[in-house]
Amino acid sequence: MDLANWFQSIAERRWPILPATLLEVRDACSRHNDLISFTELANLCLSDPLLLFDLLRVVGGSRALQRNESIPSVEQTLMLMGLEAVVHRFGKLSAMQAVPDKLDAEVVDAVEDWLGRSRVAALIIKEWLSISGEHKVEDCFVAALIYNLPACLYLIYRNQLPDKPLLQEVADHFGSDYSKVLEQFVQAMPLPAGLLNLLGSGAPSKRKQLLKLAMATANSLEQGWWRSSWNVGLDLVAKLIGATPQQVYLGVVQACLTVARQPRAAAYTYPARCILLIEGEYKRPELKKAAVLTSPDQLEQGIRESIRHLSNDLKFERVLFYRYDHDSHSLRLKYQVGLAEGHALRKLPLELEPGSFLALLTSKAQSFHAPESVRNQLVRKYEDDFFEHIGDSEFAIMSLYLGHRLAGVFYVDNGRSGRDIDDTSYHRFKELVARLTPHH
Which SUPFAM superfamilies does its entry note (predicted)? Predict the structure, then answer.
């Protein structure tokens, strides 16, 4: 794939946007003209880099913009285009979705993941600039959203997951630094030339340096926030903006949580999950491809048998199953073994507050093992009533999905003796719950 030819093929077509964004765009544009809000549409563009890309391409070739080397604000761009033109253009958008033999679901998930990282990086640099007393941040915000786009389009073209870190694979494929690929991407589309002040190879500046550090921070979160190389970047940011490393780190946490609370796609929650992880090797849990069981009775029987097995054979001292209640959007205890009489959890519904540990856990089918050190970190990093009620022991927890529908959550611990949950017991716990969602 030659870089110039590839860019030409990208420039020749319109690209789909995230399905959740498209629904909101259609809703916003279907109202009476007096009720269509440019501010709302601008915020939608700033939540989905693919939609932003679609918009910036309209004005990227403007001679006035190329001369001034400026980046107009997104809201200003929409107003300059005019309501009729905006509604007409946005009316022809399509949604990105898996297509057999053309675009695999796992590749779509990876694209959404990298778009989410861009959004996290945008919020990170906004916070860092704010701490340093700079409040004109939209140029950096937009540049952060654009940064990962060539890599995302590469994923879509290749329709396979990368063997190396994604940006490195893109660079190696084209025999060029990723920064050079990005610079040529801005010029080839074309996007507003002012982006090159931040994404180009010109003179260094504090804003450009902060942008690179924000991108590196968001893009490498899954490799472990505990790594010294990750924290060195935050220490450098602290020196650049005159803040403490703790302030800088909290800006990252807040950005991850904000994106997870308003996810454009399930993968927008991944950075928040990474912030929760503990030191050690991490393998992202795979989404189970599940078939709905033929009847509610069968599911109920399977859950009861699983609880008996977890308690009698695997010897977990406490086994809880929480059923998801759709109407109240909460988890309610359905079955339990080992909870003391009068225990608060017997009657207490667990609210799935946006950004809470349980909300993130239940956003997809996955499991989590929290030894004591991990549990303590979770409590420190996360304010969640669940930890208060469950006590101090290590635990394992897993969400149960039927198809794309959350059914509930299994929880196990050895709350009386404090005995560790060894790897074998944890894997058998995961296998047992996974069996309730047989593959197609």
Answer: GAF domain-like, HD-domain/PDEase-like
